[in-house]
Structure formats: structure tokens, C-alpha cells
Design brief:
Layout: H1 21-32, H2 35-47, H3 50-78, H4 82-90, H5 96-125, H6 129-146, H7 148-177, H8 180-185, H9 194-203, H10 206-209, H11 213-216, H12 222-251, H13 256-262, H14 266-296, H15 300-313, H16 315-321, H17 323-329, H18 334-347, H19 365-380, H20 385-403
Helix pairs in contact: 1-7, 1-12, 1-14, 2-12, 3-9, 3-12, 3-18, 4-5, 4-18, 5-6, 5-14, 5-15, 5-16, 6-7, 6-14, 6-15, 7-12, 7-13, 7-14, 13-14, 14-15, 18-19, 18-20, 19-20
Length: about 425
Amino acid sequence: MTDKHTDYELEAVPANARRGFWTLLAVMLGFTFFSASMWAGGTLGEGLSLARFALVVLCGNLVLGGYAALLAFMASRTGLSTHLISRYAFGSRGSWLPSALLGGTQVGWFGVGVVMFALPVQVATGIDTLWLIIAGGVLMTATAYLGLKALAVLSLVAVPAIFVLGNLSVGMAVKEAGGLAALAAIQPENSLTLAVALSTCIGSFISGATLTPDFVRFAKSPTIGVSTTLIAFFLGNSLMFTFGAVGALVYSESDISQVMFAQGLIIPAVLVLGLNIWTTNDNALYAASLGFSNITGWPKHWIVLINGIVGTVFALWLYNNFVGWLSFLSSALPPIGAILIADYFLVARGRYAALGQAAFETVNWVAVGAWAAGFAAANLLPGIPPLNAIVTALVIHVIASYALRRADTRATATH
């Protein structure tokens, strides 16, 4: 008998719990409505011409969308989370490495996000910051506790609201700038190179893209999983970049809620700020709890409460001290997704045994070594760090697996 609180954190999502196109699209759009993407958009807007900005966003989203779509296909076909898929590539206990990295990073971002909500609202309303942190932490934890159903309901409300109010604000900003032609005529004072611009674009959300399976495993079919993922990354991510670029050029503010505050749209600003961070934070907490459930074997809903309490209690400390560390740690996440993709498509040739029938290694040191090489490549090699990490980890995992003849024993499954 399945517990009413379960989100299938330790098993494949069964057919009767799978969801359709619109539910998955709402969840994935809410996931990609991410404040860090607006910050990245502001950086790009100030450092590129409008034409180059559009080119970089298109190319960056091709990489992000392709990377996430491959993970979405795996998840919707197997019904497994990122962390359970990791058992095949990294081993039963080896999967604790990606689960700990992904889980720890997301709890950290949860704490940062709570404060990102509380501080601007305190300035606008005068409500004590501590009470806003507590209220934000409780609400965001509650939807993650309730699971995908609550994430979907929140996203169905938040996504249209952010879309309408955000575009209204952007329209006002363009008008204030003198029209689209005047905005396009603005030339950057300090131009970004193409490599830096692409790195900014891709790096802004590739750590989040690695968590795509945690949500898309509920898709009724791979077609639904892949299509909703691609739409979310191209529409949602592009929208966030555009909000950030226009705000930075006109008001020197990349966050759309801060732009709204500058425009005097106080109530819409609070709504957009709250909904935008809420849809990101509950997803982050949800995904983190799946990771720690994989490590401990505990039910996800109890881990959500623990993570929510930790993220809320330490929110101010995380905001003041941990952002730089989290940004560095995020470079450790792209190699994880690359190894999962390589292992499923190229080593196991698209066939994994059912979770209950699979014979896992305790630790697959080939995957661990490929991850370490990808992490090092992201931080040491010139070029575009996220791509360095992905390519290096993927190539080493495939070559080492075939060299050690592991591939011959992996293509034996049914998924």
C-alpha cells in the first residue's frame, strides 16, 4: 500500500500516477522562472548589443534545452528521479555523491532564496525581516512537503501571473527608454566576449537543469517529458533573460520585481517577487529531499521538513556567507548530468534493468573519476566552464567504460 505522502522517492513512478502535458509544463515553467537567470540576463544586456544578446540566449538555451531534454527522456521513460538514475551510473552507494552535492546545493539556495524574498518586501512594507523569513520558509516548505500536486497547483497560478505582470513591466520600461529602436541602439560600454557571454547564459541554470528528472519522471510519455522540458527552457529561460536585460538597461536593475518597485508597482512587485522565488524554492527543496532520501532511505516528506527548517533557520547566514561557495559548488553539478546521459545512451545503450531487478555496483569508480575530471575541467580549463565539465565527464566515462568492457554487461535491460 502506497503511503499518501509518497512521491515515489525510492521507486519508479507507476503509470497511474503519471501526469499530462499541461501539468508538467506548468511545473517546468515554474522551475525555470529563476531569479539567477534574470541576473545573468542583466549581465548579458549590459555587455552585448541586442542582436548578440538574442544570439547568445538562443545558443545558450539550445545547450541547456538539449542537456535537460536528454535527462527528461531518461526520466520519463524509466519513471526515476535523478538520484535513482544515479545508482545505475555511480553505484548504489556511489550515487550518494551526486545526491549529496545536488541536495546540499539546493538546500543552500533555498535559504538564500528565502532572504531574497524577505529583504525587498521588508523595504517596501516595513514588516520585520525575521517574520518574513519565517513566513516565506514555512510556505515554501509546505508546498514541497505536499509534493508534485502542490508544485503543479502553485505553478498554474504563478506562471501566468509572472508572465502577465512581468511583460507589463517590460513594456513600461521599453516605453520609458523611448521605444524598442532606442533600446536596440544602446551600445555596451564594456563588451562581453562570446565565450564569457555563453558561459554566463549556460552556467546560470545548468545546475538546475541537472535536476530535470526529479519532475519529469511523472510524465505520461517521453514525448510529453521532452516537449515540456524544451518549451520551458526556451520560453521560461528566455523570458527571464529578457526581463533581466531590459531592467538592467533601463533601470540598472536586473530583477523584474526590483524594476517594478522602481516603477511604483508595489503590489505587483511583491506578487511577482514572492511567486517567482516560491516556485523556484519549493522545487529546490523538493529535489534536495529526494537526494537525501536516496542516501538515508527515509521518506521524502520528513526530509523536506528537516531541510526546510535548516534552510530557514540558517537563511541569513547562507545569504551573507554562502553564495560564493554555492556558485563554486554548482560547477560540480554539470558533470553529474553528463555522466547520467553518457551511461544511459552510450554505455547501457538506452536499456536499464527495472530498479528492483538491477544489480548495482556498490561504487562505480569510473563514474566517480569522470565526475572529478569534469569538475576539474570546469574550474581549470579555458573556454566555457559548463561545457568543459560536460564534455570532459562524458568522454572519460564512455572511454573508460568501454576500455574496461563494462558496456558489454550493461545493455541487458528493459527500459
